[in-house]
Structure formats: C-alpha cells, structure tokens
C-alpha cells in the first residue's frame, strides 16, 4: 500500500509538472501574439506541438482562462482573448496603484538574498543590447525586472495580481513593439527603479514605478495613434 501511494504521488507530481510546462509555453505564445488574439486553441494540436498529452494542455488552458488570456465557449472551443485598446486604460489604472505599492514594499522588506537577485537582474539590464535582441529576449528581460520586484515584495497575493496584469500589459506592448522609437530607453529606465529597491528607498521606488507605468501607457498610445 505504501509503495502504491508513493507511485500515485509521483504520478501526480509528474502530471503537475507537465501542466506547468504547457501553461508556461502556451502563455508565452499568447503574450508574444504568436497565438493571435481571437485565435482558436486546439487541444490536439497544442498537445502535439508541446509533446505532452491533452490533459496537461486542458489544465493549462483552465489556468490561462483565470488569467484572462483565453476564453472558452461551450460547443465552440477555447480562444485567445482579444487585445482591446480600451483595456490599456483599465490595466494602467490598476498598475498605477499596485506597481508603486509593490516597489515600495520590496524596498522595505526585501531580504538580503532578494536584493542580491535584483542586483543580478540590474547587471543583466546594464549589459542588454536592445537593438540586437529578439522580441522574446526583450520581453523576458522586462519580465525578470517586474517579477523580481514582485517576489521581493514578499506578498504572494499582490504578486499574483500584478503578474496577471503585467501579462495583459505585455500583450498590448507586443502590438506596438516594432513602432516604439526608443526601446533601449524603456529597458534601461528599469535601472533606477531596481537601484531604489535595492537601496531601500521606499518613496523613490514607488515614484519610479509610477513613472514607468505612466510612461509605458503614453508610449503605447503614441504608437497606436501614429499607426
């Protein structure tokens, strides 16, 4: 009985791991618009592409629906959610409140190891060549900055909400990425924010996070209206 229970637990862990892999890979394709907004997601095709079974894919799609990245309709299937320009204002409104909160909290409560990790992220930003990087590489670096600060804030509920809204903002960003005039400036402005968090400057970190979100919205709007 003990052996059977151990095998069962192992199977559950393996299944969860495959679902996590499927979730992350499908999520990345949705964020980079590799899966087009409004596009149909086919269980069988995704399972073949990812080299996993249909069950992990279905579990991943359920999580992605909670993230508002996909939507399911009875008898019609699961579709990537559309990217609406009007969503930018709603998303920015939430991020303008929560990003400064996370940054100031991270500056206040981050552990020594969390600050050390943010230091590594800062070095990566300093060495990053936006002109030579792919879209995926740029998005990964951007995500590493934000995820690092969210994690350093040590509030899992705040982290969960911010990751979801950062993902939604990323999809909008990808719509105009090739039209942004100075992507390297957007990337490098993370440096002052990271430095403020690492140095424990709560007010400075909050202010820089607010400026970053506001600048993001302004840049996206300019690119959209210039199109």
TrEMBL record:
Domain of life per record: Bacteria
PROSITE patterns cross-referenced by the UniProt entry: HTH_GNTR
Transport is among the record's keywords: no
Domain called HTH gntR-type: residue spans: 16-83
InterPro entries: GntR_C (IPR011711), TF_FadR/GntR_C (IPR008920), Tscrpt_reg_HTH_GntR (IPR000524), WH-like_DNA-bd_sf (IPR036388), WH_DNA-bd_sf (IPR036390)
Pfam family, one: GntR
Keywords assigned: DNA-binding, Transcription, Transcription regulation
UniProt xrefs under PANTHER family: TRANSCRIPTIONAL REGULATOR, GNTR FAMILY, UXU OPERON TRANSCRIPTIONAL REGULATOR
Name of this chain's protein: GntR family transcriptional regulator
Organism of origin: Cryobacterium serini
